[in-house]
C-alpha cells in the first residue's frame, strides 16, 4: 500500500502542483514548493519494496509502475538532485517569468521521475516525451537570442530522437507482443533484424545521453538554462538516456561484440573528444556540459562492454549505476557552484573553493571520494581479459586517457570559474541548495543502498588502498595544466 | 413500433425538429433559440448515450421500410454507427455552445443555426444508415445543409469558396450515386453487413466490382479530401470557426471517411477488397495524402489554412488504417475517426478564439498569445501535441496502434510514413506553439475584445477546454472500457470479422 501510494504521489504531486500556476500571485508560493515536489520520489526510493509492480490496467495501453534495483538508484539520484536544485532555485530566480519557470520545472520533473518508475512502455515513453518537451521551456527561459537558438537545436534533435525511439520501441514491442519493458530485451535478442532496433534505440536514447555526433545540442542547451535547471539537465536528465539503454537493450541476453566495438568507439570519442572540445571554451557552464559528454562517454564504454559480453552484465550494471550516481551528484554540485558568489572574507572564500573543488576532483577520481569508487568499479568491470571483442584490449588505455582528459577539463573549469566568479552575498537558499548538493555528493552517496561495499570491503577504504592508480592521471593532468598556465603567462594574456 | 425501433428515429428527430423550430423563430429571439438548440443537443446526446449502452449490452436498434420497390430505407444502430454517432452527438453539443458565443450579435443567426442543426441531423443519419441508399440520402443532405454555412458571411470570398465547395461535393455525390446504382445493378440492394457481400463472388464479377469500388471511393474521397480531390477543403476555410470545426472534425470529411469504412468493411469485406488488390492501391493513395497534406501545411501562414491541410493529412490515417487489414491496424484507423475529430475540433475552436478575441489570423501574429489567453493556449497545445502523436495523448494511441498493426501486416513502410508525418506535424505545429508561449508580443492585438477578468467569453473558452480534456483522457485512459479504443476493439470483435 505504502509503495503504491508513494509511486503514485511521485507523479501526482509534481503534476498537481500545476494548480499553483492558476494565479499570478501564487507564484512565490509555487517557487517555495519546488524542493518539496520530488519528496515522494525520494521516499519511494528509500522505502519501496522492490519488484512489487503497481498495476494500472486502465492507464494508456495497460500501465505498470514499480521499482527494481536499477530504477531505485536512478530514482534516488534524480529526486535528490531535483530537490537540492529546487532549493537553490528559490535563491537563484528573480520574479521575471517565475510562474512559467515553475510550470516547466514541475512538468520536466514529472517526466524525469515518471520515466524511472515506469515498467510499461507507453508510460515510459509518455514521461520521456513530457520531459523532453517541457525541458525546452527551461532551456529558453532566459529568452535571449542565444537561448532561443539553443532551444531550436535542442528541439530539432530531440524530435528526431523521439522518432527513432518510437520506431525502435514499436518494432520491439510488436515482436515481444508485450507492452512491458522487461519483455523487450529478450524479444530484441531473438529478432532477426535486431541490429535495426538496437541502432534505433542506441541513437534515440543517445540523443539524451550526449552520444558523440548526436550531442550538438547539449553544450548549447545545458549552459543557457538557468543554473538550477542546468544542474538537473546535466546531472539527472542526461541519465534518462542511459536508463533507456539499460532497460531496453538486450544487455545480458546475448553477446554482441559488434555493438561492443561500436559503443566503445563512440564512448572513447565522447570521453576524450568531449574533454578536448571543452578545453576550448571559457564559460564554466559550457565546460561542464562538455565534461558531461566526456563522462557519459566513459559510461558508454561500460554499456558497450555489457552488450559485448552477456556474462559480465551484473558487474557492469553495478559499476554503471555507481558511476551514474556519482557523476549525477558531482556534476549537479559543480553546475550549482557556477552561480555562487564568493564571500569577501578570505577564510570563508577558501572554504567555498574547497567545497567546489572536491566534487571536481571527485569527477577525476580523487581517493576517498565517490568518483574514486566509481572509477575503481569501472576499471574492475572493464578488465580486458573478460572480453573477446576487438577493441577490448584498448579499454585500459582509453580509461587512463579519459581520466587524464577529465582532470584537464576540471582544471580548465576551475580556471574559468576563477575568472568569472563574482564577490557578493548569496541568498540563503542558494547556499543551502548548493551545500545540500555537495553534501549528497560527498557524504550521502556512501549511504545509498548497494553503494556501500565492494567484495566485502567498504569502498571508502578501497579507494584509499588503490590510491596510486587513481592519483597518477590527476598528477599528469595537473602538471600539464601548470605547464600550460606558465606558457600562457609568458605569452601574455588574451590566449582565449 | 417498439422502443428499439424508435430510438434511432428519435435521435434523428431531435436535430431535425430543432432545425424546423429555429427556422420558424424570429431572428431576435436569441434566448429561445439558444434554449431550443441546447435542449436538442443535450437530448440527442442522451438518446445516443442510451443507444451506446444498449448496443454494448447487445441490443439491436433499427427500422426499415421500402422507399421504392427494391430499395429500402434502413436505420440501424450497430457498434460502428455508435462510434460516429457518439462523436457527432458529443461534439454537436460543444459546437452549439461555441457557436452561441461566436455568433453573438452577428446577423442571420436563425439561418445559421437552422442549417447547423440540419447538418448534424445528416451526420447522424450517415452514422445510422443501414445501406448505401440511405447513406447516400443523408450524404447529399449534408452537402446541401453545409453550403449555407460555408457562405454564411456572404462575402465575395465566401461565395467563391461556397461555389468551389458545392461543385466538388455535388460532383462527388454524382459519382457516388453512379457507383451505388452500378452496384445495385450488379447485385441488388445491399445492406451493410459485417464481412461484406462478396466473400464468394463469381469470377466474372471481379472486374466490374473493381471498377465500382474505384468509382465509390472516388465519390466518397471528395468529402474525405483524398488527394487530388481535396481542393475544396482549404478554400472552405473562410467559413466561421465553428463551421470549420464541425466540417473538419465530424461532419463532412468524416462522412467521406466513414463511407469508405462502410464500403470496405460491410459491402466488399476486407478480405475481398484485399483479394481484389484494392487495398494496396488505397493504401498508397492514403499514404501520399498523409505526406502531401503535411508538406502543404508547412507552407501556410494562415492558421486556419494550416489546420485545413493538416486535416487533409490526418483523415487519411483512417483510410490507411483500414488498408492494414488486420485487427490492430484497423483499430488504429477507426479510433482515429474519433481522435482526429476531438483534436481537430479543439484546434479550430482555439483558432476561432484567437480570431474573435484578439483579431489574430496569421501564425506570425500569435507571438505572446499564451500569456493573454492561457486557457485557449493550453487547449491548443494539447491538441497540437496530440496531432504530432506525442504520448500520452489521443494521437499517440492512434499512431502506436497503427504502427503495431502495420508491422503485424508486414507493411513496414507504413512506419516510415507515420514517422515522416509526425516529423512534419512537429515542424508545422511546434513553431506555432513556440510563438504562442515564448514569443514576445510585438504589436498591440489587432482587434482586442475584453471580457472582464476572463480571457474570452465563457461560451468560447469552455468547449475547447472540454475537448482538450477528452483528447487527454482518450489517450491516458485508452485501456478503460468506454474509451474510443475500447469501443473500437468492441467493433472489431463484433462486426469486422477478422
Concise structural overview:
Chain A is mainly alpha-helical and 496 residues long. Chain A contains 20 helices and 4 strands.
User: Residue share in helices of chain B?
Assistant: over 70%
Helix content of chain A: over 70%
Task: Output the number of helix runs of chain B.
Answer: 20
Please write the string of helix (H) and strand (E) elements of chain B: HHEEHHHHHHHHHHHHHHHHHH
Q: Unreliable stretches of chain B, pLDDT < 50, 5 or more residues?
A: none
- Tell me the β content of chain A: under 5%
Low-confidence stretches of chain A: 492-496
Which oligomeric form is depicted?
A: heterodimer
Cα end-to-end separation of chain B: 34 Å
Backbone shape of chain B: globular
Task: Report the average pLDDT across residues of chain A.
Answer: 89
Strand order of the largest sheet of chain A: 1-2
Rg of chain A, Cα atoms, Å: 21 Å
Whole-number total of structural domains of chain A: 1
Helices and strands, with pairings:
The complex is a heterodimer of chains A (496) and B (498).
Chain A: H1 2-16, H2 27-33, H3 39-47, E1 54-56, E2 63-65, H4 69-92, H5 98-117, H6 121-139, H7 145-176, H8 184-189, H9 194-209, H10 217-224, H11 227-248, H12 257-279, H13 284-308, H14 313-337, H15 346-364, H16 370-381, H17 395-420, H18 428-442, E3 453-454, E4 457-458, H19 459-465, H20 467-491
Antiparallel strand pairs in A: 1-2, 3-4
Chain B: H1 3-24, H2 30-56, E1 61-68, E2 71-77, H3 79-102, H4 109-128, H5 132-150, H6 156-187, H7 206-223, H8 232-235, H9 241-249, H10 252-268, H11 270-275, H12 278-298, H13 303-323, H14 327-358, H15 369-372, H16 374-388, H17 394-408, H18 413-438, H19 458-476, H20 484-496
Antiparallel strand pairs in B: 1-2
Helix pairs in contact in B: 1-2, 1-4, 2-3, 3-4, 3-9, 3-14, 3-19, 4-5, 5-6, 5-10, 6-7, 7-10, 9-14, 10-13, 12-13, 12-18, 13-14, 14-16, 14-17, 14-19, 14-20, 16-18, 16-19, 17-18, 17-19
